[in-house]
Write a structure and sequence with these properties.
Distance between the termini: 32 Å
CATH superfamily of one domain: P-loop containing nucleotide triphosphate hydrolases
Radius of gyration: 19 Å
Number of helices: 12
Helix content: 40-55%
Number of strands: 3
Order of helices and strands: EHEEHHHHHHHHHHH
Structural class: mainly alpha
CATH topology of one domain: Rossmann fold
Shape: globular
Largest sheet: 3 strands, antiparallel
CATH architecture of one domain: 3-Layer(aba) Sandwich
CATH class of one domain: Alpha Beta
């Protein structure tokens, strides 16, 4: 799988990036696939990890401190946590969306200054649900997963009953990771958050 970066051309994307504060305020590019706007440094890290072969027992390590695409996790979260009170930033967590997606929809509409009816809220809650997202090929990464599996001569994920997205249940990692791995993960989290004033979900 290959990635390419394009300069931002959309005035809206350029305006959004101009509002970014902290260590993430550097050059941004549009990455294809899938078309997301990311810091330019993403390309450097993504290329380093894209062809990394991972054993099943190593997956948790790559998913936490070493994954280049979305991590180091807390170094990604903390700058936005620190920006959460700024007038142009709306911060909420996955846990909040799972607990009360309708409330998050209403908060987002209010933040954007858009009127919204209860009928619209219900439609958005259905459209934005995890189940809808998991079944939507435009966002569920199924094409990327199948492309990578094909490159490595693996059978299609669908035929093995696997998918990029599982159930989207908060806390499911505790059922899948061993107690030893969970302890190491908790220790790593405590180290990353020490003295940083973060009080949100973990």
């Amino acid at each position: 799988m290959s990635l390419r970066a394009e300069k931002l051309r959309s005035p809206l994307a350029v305006k959004f990036v101009s509002c970014v504060r902290g260590p993430l305020r550097d050059d941004h590019v549009r990455v294809r696939p899938p078309g997301c706007v990311m810091p330019a440094r993403y390309m450097r890290d993504a290329r380093r990890i894209l062809d990394l072969e991972v054993r099943p027992e190593d997956v948790w390590i790559v998913t936490l401190p070493k994954c280049a695409m979305y991590l180091p996790y807390w170094e990604h979260v903390i700058p936005f946590w620190n920006m959460r009170q700024e007038p142009h930033v709306l911060f909420f967590s996955y846990e909040e969306m799972k607990e009360d997606l309708a409330l998050v929809v209403r908060r987002t509409a209010a933040f954007l200054g858009k009127p919204i009816t209860e009928e619209m809220v219900a439609q958005l809650v259905d459209h934005l649900s995890f189940d809808r997202m998991r079944d939507n090929p435009a966002v569920n990464n199924s094409s990327a997963v199948e492309h990578i599996r094909k490159e490595h001569q693996l059978e299609p994920a669908a035929s093995t009953g696997r998918s990029f997205m599982r159930r989207g249940v908060v806390g499911e990692g505790g059922q899948r990771l061993s107690e030893g791995v969970q302890r190491r993960l908790e220790h790593w989290t405590e180290q990353r958050l020490q003295g940083r004033g973060y009080t949100g979900p973990r």
